[in-house]
Design brief:
By secondary structure, this protein is α/β, with parallel strands linked by helices. Helix content is about 30%, strand content about 25%. Strands 3-2-1-4-5 form a 5-stranded parallel beta sheet, with helices on both faces. A 4-stranded mixed beta sheet has the order 6-7-9-8, with helices on one face. It has a 4-stranded mixed beta sheet with strand order 10-11-15-12, with helices on one face. It is elongated, with a radius of gyration of 25 Å. The relative contact order is 0.11. About 5% of the residues have low confidence.
Length: about 375
Amino acid sequence: MKRIAFVDRDGTLIEEPEDFQIDAYDKLRFVEGMLAGLQALQSAGFELVMVSNQDGLGTPAFPQDHFEGPQQLLMQLLESQGVRFAEVLIDPSLPEQRSPNRKPGVGMVMHYLRDRSVDLAGSVVIGDRDTDLEFARNLGARGFKLGPKESWSSILSQILAAERRAEVRRETRETRIAVELNLDVQRDPQVMTGLGFFDHMLEQLGKHGGFALDLHCAGDTHIDEHHTVEDCALALGTALRQALGNKRGIGRYGHADEGEGSAGEALILPMDECLVRAALDLSGRPYFVFDGRFPRERVGDLPTELVPHFFRSLCETAGITLNLQVRGENAHHMVEGCFKAVARALRAAIQRSGQELPSTKGAL
């Protein structure tokens, strides 16, 4: 999904004069840090959209041609430095007209609200007024306000260093699930599904995956375990995909730790008599291959047939390619080894370094 940076103009990109109208070339002055800020946002994968109120534009008090010259010069200067806006949206109405297009109204950006390929929760609004923050709330995006305590540099640090978090609620006639995920924080997992051994396995994902995981499920375990296991996997996969965002800077592939192989190889994890191999790619393309056979039908309250089904469902919603192999004699060790191996491969794949997108396709 694409993220948008909705950026105000006057007071945000260019200094706002006392008469609030930039209608002459000599009034055109850049706000400190804005050029580097726009370049960094583009490098981080944000699409730039300018959204500005221009009171009375096109009236005798603010002729259109007085606006166009400085505006075109601004755009040319930005483009000469590699900064390109996907769209420029200008509302010319006066406050008393109460136009739905005027910020903080969202009339000018309704097409983004309707576009399911836009990640509004991961998008940002940058401006210099409280109305810009209100505009952000109306969009469902994060808002940032320039001022004495917030510069372009400090705002940029907050945006690019933001934790990769997700909250997912999934309710059906069979299960009610709440998942909270933070890929950039490590803490003890909090899991409660009504299935003790399954809880223990999900805890392995959070602990060995190196991320904060809270998952609670109320399911129809009085019928059987299937719906709880499957729906927890679907909800967790959805949360993982949302938290990863545009995937810039991630390792993408699961790989072995030092002494166990090089980057890009399968993670080989021993657990007593069993051996598990997990190879993982956060490709955006769901695919799961399982090679193994468990020696008994259940471990605790978890049917072993649901172990590969869990990982298949996780791959479907998270967009993961996963090859998982297990050999052993003790079913408990084999199941736990599977969850630990996938967690360790996932830990390497989600690690972030820089802002490069690890794909020649330009999208993951």
